[in-house]
Specification:
Layout: E1 2-8, E2 17-23, E3 30-39, H1 42-48, E4 65-72, E5 84-87, E6 90-92, H2 98-101, E7 112-113, E8 133-137, E9 142-143, H3 150-153, H4 159-169, E10 177-181, H5 185-196, E11 200-205, H6 211-217, E12 221-224, H7 228-232, E13 238-243, H8 252-255, E14 258-266, H9 279-283, E15 288-291, H10 297-310, E16 316-320, H11 324-332, E17 339-343, H12 347-352
Parallel strand pairs: 10-11, 10-13, 11-12, 13-14, 14-15, 16-17
Antiparallel strand pairs: 1-2, 3-4, 3-8, 3-17, 4-5, 5-9, 6-7
Helix pairs in contact: 4-5, 4-10
This protein binds NADP nicotinamide-adenine-dinucleotide phosphate and zinc ion.
């Protein structure tokens, strides 16, 4: 077994603290990764606080993992020792159902998520990337170009693919007017991708202080969503709106902005349900509300390669792991530009102090 140290929450109201546990030894198809950086997703916070229900404690969060290959199983041919690799939200799936067959492993009923899921190999819960190493089946390990900054690439593994995938699925391109709601970890990646795909990009934010930043990141227009006059000017003009907000709010404000046949796609997963949307708002222009979940492994690799080609990474603030609890408080106040990334070298302090 591989002795591992990470940070865990032991219940839904206590801070994360150092936690020692064991990873499985690499099996023939496994890759063992020494973790360099791990992004801090709002989903980590939702699950640490058990806001979605179903959290099993202790919980070691983290699904935006970048590291180097430290060992490989005897049947691994696609990865080399020392190579820069990534792991996102998934570490296993059945491999045989229609979703897996179609490279949509995120929808597999037997998908194993990187943390807080029973691991079919050990029977214990999976533990995520707020830790110094991880052992993952090669099918769920991604190649990361050395041309990308490894810390700024970490958020691509969740925030990146979660926004890239719906923009690709709805075939966003130069003739589209696209809205992005919320300028956080997901939202700022969505602005970058929608711009890179050639769309006209409008960012909706509750934070007037983010207007200039949003433009720097690629938004053509920025609308403060509390300004009802500015919202009114955008009525019935959008082909597609991607909503990344992590809290319950009135979706009618955004369905009203869609053109005929336009789509509002939800990726934010608030702890309290949104108020029911107005049926008339949908019916009169045949508008749709849809959802999207991360992306499959093939598309995640495609996204990482696209980012290497187009020099796209996240805007990040690097923190030592000892600051994770303060980082959560700041994330709740939308006080992050635009993703915290943990430097796992900081874990040595806890390892040395016994
Ligand atoms: P984040 O960095 O905290 O960003 C969320 C943004 O939402 C904030 O920056 C803020 O932007 C806006 N917001 C407006 N009102 C808010 C409020 N009352 N509370 C919180 N945020 C508010 O979060 P994230 O990591 O991007 O994640 C966003 C959501 O997506 C979370 O619910 C997360 O669990 C979910 N998620 C879903 C998937 C998926 O596969 N579907 C994957 C990853 C994450 P402004 O300041 O610009 O208004
Ligand atoms: Zn995430």
């Amino acid at each position: 077994m591989q002795k591992t140290i990470g940070y865990a929450a032991h219940d839904h109201h206590s801070p994360l603290v150092p936690f020692r546990f064991e990873r499985r030894d690499p099996m023939p198809t496994d890759v063992q990764i020494e973790i360099l950086f791990c992004g801090v997703c709002h989903s980590d916070l939702h699950q640490v606080r058990n806001e979605w229900g179903g959290s099993v404690f202790p919980i070691v969060p983290g699904h935006e993992i970048v590291g180097r290959v430290a060992a490989i199983g005897s049947a691994v041919t696609d990865f080399k020792l020392g190579e820069l690799v990534g792991v996102g939200c998934l570490v296993d799936s059945c491999g045989t159902c229609p979703d897996c067959h179609d490279h949509q492993e995120q929808f597999c009923d037997a998908a194993t998520f990187t943390y807080n899921t029973p691991d079919p190999h050990t029977g214990r819960m999976t533990y995520g990337g707020y830790s110094n190493r991880i052992v993952v089946d090669q099918r769920f390990v991604l190649h990361i170009s050395d041309s990308l900054d490894p810390a700024a690439a970490a958020p691509l593994l969740c925030a990146g693919i979660t926004t890239y995938s719906p923009l690709r699925h709805w075939q966003i391109g130069p003739n589209d007017k696209v809205g992005i709601v919320g300028l956080g970890g997901l939202g700022h990646m969505a602005v970058k991708f929608a711009r890179a795909f050639g769309a006209h990009v409008v960012l909706f934010t509750t934070s007037a202080s983010k207007i200039e930043d949003a433009k720097r990141l690629g938004a053509h227009e920025v609308v403060v969503s509390k300004d009802s006059e500015a919202m009114g000017k955008q009525r019935a003009s959008f082909d597609f709106i991607l909503n990344t907000v992590a809290a319950s709010h009135n979706l009618d404000d955004y369905t009203a902005l869609l053109k005929r046949d336009g789509t509002l796609c939800l990726v934010g997963v608030p702890d309290h349900a949104h108020p029911s949307p107005s049926a008339a708002n949908l019916i009169f222009k045949r508008r749709r509300i849809a959802g999207s979940l991360i992306g499959g492994l093939k598309e995640t690799q495609e996204m990482l390669d696209f980012c290497a080609q187009h020099h796209i990474t996240a805007d990040i603030e690097i923190i030592p792991i000892q600051q994770i609890n303060q980082a959560y408080e700041r994330m709740l106040k939308s006080d992050v530009k635009y993703r915290f990334v943990i430097d796992l070298a900081s874990l040595k302090r806890d390892a040395e102090s016994g």
